[in-house]
Amino acid sequence: MELAATADAAALGSFAAWLERHGRHVRRLAIPNLEHICFGRDDAEAVARDYERCLRAAGAAGQLEELVFNEETGLLDGVDWPSAVPSLRRLHLDSGLLCIPPSLPTLTALCSLELGGGVVQPLQGHDGRLPSGLTRLGVTGLYANFLPRQARALE
């Protein structure tokens, strides 16, 4: 499933509701950069809740294998979204400020991680570990002021 990059806040809410009904069938979820939804809006918290609803609904049945996430707004910086998608095998994160959540290592089924964007920054509590099952790490276009501990050891 892929949400259109031109989606508005109402479309994101509808998409989240659809995923709550049918998410158990979703194997791949792509959420584009929806910065235009939040820019200058008073309801950024509602948009963040809908983002989180999408992730939790798609991950609830344990069938979601791939997540493509392009997010520039920092909406999910305080959300423990990895716990919502424990079955992920492939994760593509792309952002101008790529925030690594502390619970990323809990994705033990994850075998492929792609990090792209601008600056990588750990969120408070991240200890630099990567998921234990990781067999592929791609890093593109980053200003690597921070890389997980295992990635730095490869340099």
- The chain-level mean pLDDT equals 77
Total strands: the figure is 5
Looking at the structure, the CATH topology is Leucine-rich repeat, LRR (right-handed beta-alpha superhelix)
Number of domains: 1
Strand order, largest beta sheet: 1-2-3-4-5
**Helical segment count:** 4
Q: What series of H and E elements makes up the topology?
A: HEHHEEEEH
Low-confidence segments, given as residue ranges, are none
Roughly what percent helix? 25-40%
Structural class: alpha/beta
Radius of gyration: 15 Å
- Overall geometric form: globular
Task: Write down the CATH class.
Answer: Alpha Beta
CATH architecture: Alpha-Beta Horseshoe
How much β-strand is present in the residues?
15-25%
Span between termini: 36 Å
What keywords describe this structure?
155 residues, alpha/beta, Leucine-rich repeat, LRR (right-handed beta-alpha superhelix), 5-stranded parallel β-sheet, 4 helices
In words, what does this structure look like?
This protein is an alpha/beta fold and 155 residues long. It has one domain (9-154): Leucine-rich repeat, LRR (right-handed beta-alpha superhelix) (Alpha-Beta Horseshoe), CATH 3.80.10. It is 26% helix and 23% strand. It has 4 helices and 5 strands. The protein has a 5-stranded parallel sheet, with no helix packed on it. Helix 1 packs parallel to helix 3 (44-59).
